[in-house]
Amino acid sequence: MDNEKPRVLVYNYDRTEKFFLNAEMAQWNPREDRPMVPAHATLVAPPPMPWPDGQTPVFNGETWNLQIDNFWRPKSKEVNYDAGRPLTTWQPKAISFRDFPTYPDLHRLTASILVVNRLVDNTRFIDATFQRLVNLHSLLRSGASAIFDDTVGGTTLCGKPTPFGMYKFESEALVFQMRHCLDTLCRLTELLVDADQVNKAKSFRCENVGSLFYSQKKSRVANIVRGLGQEFEADDTDFLRISNNLFNAMKHTHMNAETQSLHGEETPTIVAYHAPSGEHRDLITYHNHNAHHLMMGFHDTIDRILRNQRIFLDDK
Prior knowledge:
Layout: E1 9-13, E2 20-25, E3 28-29, E4 34-35, E5 41-42, E6 55-59, E7 64-68, E8 76-79, H1 112-141, E9 149-150, E10 154-155, H2 163-201, H3 220-227, H4 239-252, E11 269-274, E12 284-290, H5 291-315
Helix pairs in contact: 1-2, 2-3, 2-4, 2-5, 3-5
């Protein structure tokens, strides 16, 4: 009990206008035997609440002053994907080309069997990427250093991304490859539905998942892939929409550097911020997804789309 450290609060403030943000427990510096104070924070407590209506504490470098609260703050909502089944049901996906129907070719350009074989390999790669992500998460939880140190030449960054960086890049690779598989299934579905038109135009109208929510939302491909008709299985967990938005968040949003060190406490998470219109004054979506649930949703979605394709062929 004598070695137990006191519980000390640090008070965080905005980095530019210095208004109060929140309080959190300080981490302890074992070398100096004192609480660590991060940037843009202080051990000085603000005035006790409640504060006068319309006012908030602002730190002046030494103490807090109450000022009129005209400060802009971002507005956000959190999205958490749920696969609709227990996490304990997760298992790697057994998949082969035999699980797919026979698709027409894109004449003189691409044999669909090669597309299917690549899709199968891609799905297996996603499972392998997920396992790397799980291993990296364990490494981070064990207290891996954020920077690799070369005792001979000092800190060397060339070819050695930090564990936080590796975790982030693997999670993005996971989402991007999921999207690649789903886009491929959209195009293969269009070949099933309208091979003559695709071969005549030498182009796809349903090029990717995003098109199924906008320009092609009333197409037969959307009916099959999203499960919009009564005869098809619906995307009850909304995986396609959520994963599409997550992909766009990782691809486009400037704020994602803020998620570089976020990886989940007990289980791996995949996180991103999304400002859909690029207008950061609008509502920002905070994607915070259990990685196991995303993997289950991806596997279930592939199976569901393949079942819908077979329903279409049976009714054709």
